[in-house]
What we know:
By secondary structure, the protein is of the alpha+beta class. 37% of the residues lie in helices and 29% in strands. The strands form 2 sheets. An 8-stranded mixed beta sheet has the order 5-12-6-11-10-9-8-7, sandwiched between helices. Helix 3 (81-94) runs parallel beside helix 4.
Amino acid sequence: MTWTLSTSLDDFRAEAGAFLAARPAENTVLLTISHRLAVAGLEIFGEPPVFGWWRPEVDGPVEAAFLQTPPFAPRLSSMTEAAAADLATRLAAAGPGFTELTGVGGGAAAVRAFADAWTAATGTTRTVRVEERLYRLGRLTDPTHPPTGRHRLAAPADRDLAIRWYAEFLAEVDVPPMDIPKAVDDRIAGGGLHLWEDDGTPVALAGASPILAGMSRIGPVYTPAPLRGRGYATAATAAASAHVLTQGAQEVLLYTDLANPTSNSIYQQIGYLPVEDCLVVDFTAP
């Protein structure tokens, strides 16, 4: 088994791109992040990223990959538990000279295997930050109780509102800060930011990633707290999903926090079906 570690996005895409595209649902995060790095620059998320890909045999095909955009934790592709454990051992041996690691995210089984090997090698402890579920859209159906209002794409005039809502969303889900204005500008320019408005006033937001390998992922989805419980987020998600289908998406995906039974229920009501459970784990030094 062989992991190759790299700081080259070009090499990562050349070596692991076909593997990632062959399973776009399970590899959605790596596909979208590597695309954004290629379009917006290597330091768009903060520090320079690092990458890796794994072959079970030296001359065999790539069957696993990861990337990390510090200060965010590494994200694992679909991979076997053996590959995940091997990666943890390899990164522990490489040490902070390659990258500093304070957590990991990905499919639940791979993350657990990685965490077992990492804590054994480093003496750290682990805590689960969030348990997620990845969903894929089956047949899109209308919300059971559609709210009043209508869908529209966000325009440059909505920029300040979208930036504020992005910041509120990231604070709620406890995600490290990012270049929110850049993210919003790119989404608006690419037609990937959707608003639900009621009586002419925006009341909910849903993002949609560019279509890559036939896949688009919905997120973030956000409704300000005083406006929740009225079906606005469901309607915005359904509208964004319908839009990317008309743009040629073959798979439409989204993640939910398993601690939030409401989101896991409402997305299934409009046609989303579970694909896999995922974990984000934090490591703490002794």
